[in-house]
Please model this.
Amino acid sequence: MHLCLGLRPALSPTRFDEEDLAFAAQLGVTHVQIRTERLISRDSGNVLHAADLEAIVGQFDDFGLTLAVVLLPQGRDTQYWNARLGRPEREQEVEDVCETLRVIGSFGVPVVEWTWSIPDVWGSRRGSTRGGASVRQFDYATVHHVGPELPDEAVDAATMWERMLWFLRRIVPAAESAGVRLALHPHDPPTPWLRGEARIIGTIDGLKRLIEEVPSPVNGLNFCQGTIAEMGVDVLEAIRWFGERDRINHVHFRDVRGSVPRFSESFIDDGDTDMLAAMRAYRDVGYRYAMMPDHTPAIAGDTPWGHRGRAYAVGYMRALMEATHGGDGG
Model:
């Protein structure tokens, strides 16, 4: 497995701050995940352009960093927004995603992360954890009654499955041809409903159905360990089930306290999951892709991006990797 950080361009859509790249390299990070909201726009064809990705990869090379994961755009009116709503525009959008997968694969990037939600990560508030560090907290009782932003954004489970599987079955052949693996992030928070949307991939059964419905080896998960913990299930058992089937293609290595309907994010060493046992479980199933911290607490004196919080999480992850199988594990 590879120690990874998610980095965002700071100077332009294709230009990263060299201090951030140096920061990652100095921590011993070897691989990087990037987002694409600023790279993919409808005004420029709604696809990722090879020249843009080439510029990014070149910067990473200068710091000994490897691009390991590309996250497709999230949120309202981004690349495949209409597909989530079942609109006619989805026919063109799915072609745009397939072209984007081809571009990503041409650079040897092994994993493409994606999401499938209308409200996305919504309904949280800020709270505090150890020492007063700021973290995300969620209480379903405060938001369960809130409806969708727009009437057509209320979607039942059967419709959600139809739309998502239609999309997935269309992009899997392109992913196979491009040599990339797909990593779908579970619904976070994993509530039964959120703003009128049935959260069909907010349970272990839903995630199992996802990979069973489309049995291609490229169809797998971004195993967000914090979200899995929020489901109130045995996290180690889930790692083993999906890992033994080689369906974990990316990992967000984080933890929480509590589970739905009420939970709070935590420091990596202060949640409910035995993180050393989790790292051993990834080793035992032969996990071989990127692993990154996510949603790190805001530490006193931190930057807006959270350099101190990320450094703490990365250091802890490195120690666990050394304790289980040595170094990067790659």
About this structure: The mean pLDDT is 96. The two ends are 5 Å apart (CA to CA).
